[in-house]
Amino acid sequence: MPLMGSVNKKLAASLRPPDWASFFTTGQHVDFIRLLTEDIGRRGLSVKEEDGYAIVRRGGGKAQRFSLLNIAQTCHIQPADTWVKTLAEFLDGVLKVDGQIEAIASTLQDFGQVKDRLKLRLHSAAYRQTQGAADMMIRNEADGLVSVMVCDMEFANIS
Question: What is the pTM of this model?
Answer without folding.
Answer: 0.61
